[in-house]
Design goal:
Largest sheet: 8 strands, mixed
Distance between the termini: 47 Å
Helix content: 25-40%
Low-confidence stretches: none
Number of helices: 14
Length: 362
């Protein structure tokens, strides 16, 4: 049974007071949150231990400068847990990393919320977000998709991580509501001077936006049809790739210290190039861009959390996130798997079953 904080204050003010209490009472070592960098509205992620610096945070600001799940996966255990305010896709990314022993859930108290999406990094860099914020929050209150958020945000249906320690209901709410969902959260906030009552979040409040997002996803997926076009279709999509590997760098699920695609195995090899040039008469440079994307798809597509970072950083404007989202959902659905849904839900490729997919034959 969850507990609802009984307060009439704006949700961001209550959240700020909650974080200050956790830090002041030494329940946590630090607060991880988005914070304001300057008066123009630029934000970054910060790890804050000084209670006076909590006035700088902007935990609900609709920008994702990096996937927080990836950043938190690099933490080594601190003396006490860190309280982390993250978006649903960031929380799910960390859950997937924890399954791969790239993080520990016990190191954190996670706060997440029903998410209306984030604006692009380009809009943030060009200082275009200020003028969109009022429309964004009005859309959240009315359970509709805000204009200008990332493509994958428009089609995301995993928007309410009820398995986080603390969940904030923002979509469809006038002021927002804060639920304590775990014993860890209840224990840490025992001395917090806001009354609570037993109450469960009602997912029905998300019905309208989920219908709108399902329609957007259908529209998005209809534009990505590599099944019929085969290799030619992949060449058309990924042929613009310049080989920067930016999508790999920002992906929270690609955690290898040295990716094979960045190793010497894929350096230019003159004897091999000369042999291939003799056989084919022409070579594409940089080489292996199609192989790179296919390799990533085969390695982690079913654990893609649809954060959209890959598309956002692509200098060639390839819809990487859309392709991974579609491929990942199709793959994961065969196993009834949703990336990051539960820490106890094993990754399909890590499970051996003697009999599987009998409909495909021997």
């Amino acid at each position: 049974m969850s507990r609802l904080l009984k307060t009439n204050k704006p949700v961001e003010q209550t959240l700020n007071e909650l974080l200050k209490y956790l830090l002041e009472s030494k329940q946590v070592s630090a607060v991880f949150s988005l914070r304001k960098v300057n008066e123009k509205g630029s934000v970054d992620y910060g790890l804050i231990s000084d209670i006076n610096k909590l006035d700088e945070i902007a935990p609900l600001h609709p920008v994702m400068p990096a996937n927080a799940g990836q950043l938190l996966g690099r933490f080594t255990p601190m003396g006490k847990p860190v309280v982390a305010v993250v978006r649903p896709c960031e929380f799910r990314a960390f859950v997937e990393l924890a399954k791969r022993e790239q993080g520990q859930m016990d190191n954190f108290l996670f706060i997440s919320y029903s998410c209306s999406g984030v604006f692009t990094l380009k809009d943030n860099a060009e200082d275009k977000i200020k003028g969109k914020l009022n429309g964004y929050w009005e859309a959240a209150k009315s359970s509709s998709i805000p204009e200008g958020v990332r493509n994958v945000c428009c089609s995301c249906e995993q928007i309410a991580p009820l398995n986080s320690d603390i969940f904030i209901s923002l979509i469809g709410e006038e002021n927002g509501k804060i639920y304590l969902n775990s014993k860890k959260a209840e224990k840490m906030l025992e001395g917090f001077e806001i009354e609570t009552e037993h109450s469960e979040f009602d997912p029905a409040i998300l019905t309208d936006i989920l219908k709108e997002r399902a329609a957007k996803k259908k529209e998005l997926f209809s534009k990505i049809n590599t099944k019929d076009s085969g290799l030619d279709g992949l060449i058309d999509i990924f042929g613009k790739c310049i080989g920067c590997h930016g999508c790999n760098t920002v992906c929270p699920i690609c955690y290898c210290t040295l990716c094979d695609f960045d190793s010497f195995n894929y350096d230019y090899n003159t004897p091999i190039m000369e042999k291939e040039l003799e056989e084919k008469g022409a070579l594409r440079l940089p080489p292996d861009t199609i192989f790179f994307h296919l390799g990533r798809l085969s390695h982690m597509s079913f654990s893609c959390v649809g954060c959209g970072m890959c598309s956002d950083v692509c200098p060639a404007t390839i819809p990487v996130a859309d392709i991974f989202k579609k491929t990942g959902e199709e793959t994961a659905s065969m196993f009834d798997f949703i990336a990051g849904r539960s820490i106890d839900e094993a990754i399909p490729v890590m499970i051996y079953k003697e009999e599987e997919f009998p409909e495909l034959g021997e």
